[in-house]
Amino acid sequence: MKKRLGSLYKNMIFVTVLPIFVLGLIITVYCLDTYTNGMTREVEIGLRNMAVSIESAYNELYEGEYALNDSGELTKGDKVLSEEYGLFNSIKANADVEISLICNDTRMITTIVDSNGNRMTGTTINEKISEWIRENDSAYFSTAVVIDYDEYYGYYLPVYENEKDVDCVIFVGMPQAEVKGFLDSSIARIIIISAICLIITMIITILYTHELITHIKKMTTFMKNVGQGRLSKGLDESILSRNDELGKMGRHASNMQEALHRLVEQDVLTELYNRRCGDMKLKKLYDDNIREDKDITIAISDIDFFKSINDNYGHDAGDVVLKSVADILKENIRNKGFVCRWGGEEFLFAFYNNSIEETRNILEDIRIKVERNIVNYENYNITTTMTFGVSTFETGKSIEELLKEADDNLYKGKNNGRNQVIC
User: Fold this and answer.
1) Is the pTM higher than 0.85?
2) Where would I find the beta strands (DSSP E) of 319-385?
3) 80-111, pLDDT tens digit by residue?
4) Cβ-proximal residues to 62 (8 Å cutoff; 6+ apart), any chain
5) 237-287 per-position pLDDT tens digit
6) Which residue, of 125, 323, 397, 417, has the greatest Cβ tally within 10 A?
7) Whole-angstrom Cα distance, residue 166 to residue 129?
8) Which residues contact 75 (CB under 8 A, 6 or more apart)?
9) 313: closest CA among 232, 378, 264, 368?
10) CA 96 from centre of chain
11) pLDDT tens column, 189-232
12) Torsion of CA 45, 47, 48, 50, to 10 degrees
């Protein structure tokens, strides 16, 4: 028992912690993705604002249009910009970003240096980026701009395009390493918090498991009984009285047991025993009679001209009639035996320790009540009658022979005018 209990403890911890671990992993990935997207958006906005500020600063400092002079130098109005690094150097020192002023895909002014420490003036930008800017006539942002093997978050802002076919773009880039530093720090915090939550959950689970396992085992035993058809054994009250999900599950299981009990034994429409249950109860009654030598009488009956009711009033009306007749049968056989729906409009009766005359009297009383019964359906008053065939146990007679004798007597009554009891 201890071995099984320990195994259940391990399984409970496993099935509890694993989903939490997976959920924690999903939350971690989601938080990381959200944080990354948020930071990327903030970086994009920051780089765009810098690019716009640089454009505004150039327009304030220098009047005129961007152009290339005969020496291939970039000018704005009368001012040659190719050697003007004061603004760029100041922004780089304060914001730790790289800046370039690009004309016709060539870096004319840039703070970016190569591996030898030389400014990358005269180098060209990525052809695909250049084509995208021209085709879309709008700014371009990327998280993976590669310049001389270094990766940047980069923002390209078109600032001018004139009839001289001079395209100018301001580039502002932030090294990826800086952004990744923030991300790594965030990842570490999320992992630590997740680990702490997981440990706390494990401790709570272990402390709570003992009682939970006991109730789960009781639930398992209960469900096993239900699965094996032992539907009379109820669930432990300690589970039913719980106010948590397990208690709710137990109450649902108990309701399911009752529903199965009804489903297995009851006919859905009439709420009488169904044929399967009737067979079982008849066999038990027969076996008891063999053992205790008690009288057994049975009867098979059906509703006369039931097909006409369905044809004239509809099958819904037929169902109402069946239900009404079943209520009469159930009420008048209580404590005397049992009745089941044998099939369609047929019913089987079995009486406990009754003589054939006593059975006849009971069935005559039922026949009269059915005959006087009026079923109100929509605008119709429907009446019906029943015919009964009775048989009684004699030594050596089998159940099949009892049923056949009752069925034969039923058909005698049918052929003899119906609405009668034939023994």
Assistant:
1) no
2) 337-343, 346-352, 374-377, 380-383
3) 887 778 888 888 888 889 999 998 899 999 99
4) 76, 77, 79, 81
5) 888 888 888 888 888 878 877 777 777 788 989 999 999 889 989 998 888
6) 125
7) 17
8) 64, 66, 67, 68, 69, 81
9) 378
10) 50
11) 877 887 787 778 777 777 777 777 778 788 888 888 777 777 66
12) 120
Q: What does R_g of the chain's alpha carbons equal in angstroms?
A: 46
Q: Tokens 């999903």 sit at which residue?
A: 26
Please tell me what DSSP assigns to residue 354: -
Give how far Cα 170 sits from Cα of 19, 96, 243, 339, Å.
50, 16, 66, 94
Closest CA to 134 of 185, 101, 95, 169: 169
Which residue type sits at 386?
Answer: M
Nearest to residue 282, comparing CAs of 175, 401, 151, 138? 401
Alpha-carbon span 154 to 141, nearest angstrom: 6
Q: How far apart are CA 40 and CA 195, in angstroms?
A: 27
What are the start-end ranges of the H helices in 62-140? 86-95, 127-136
One-letter amino acid at 109 equals: I
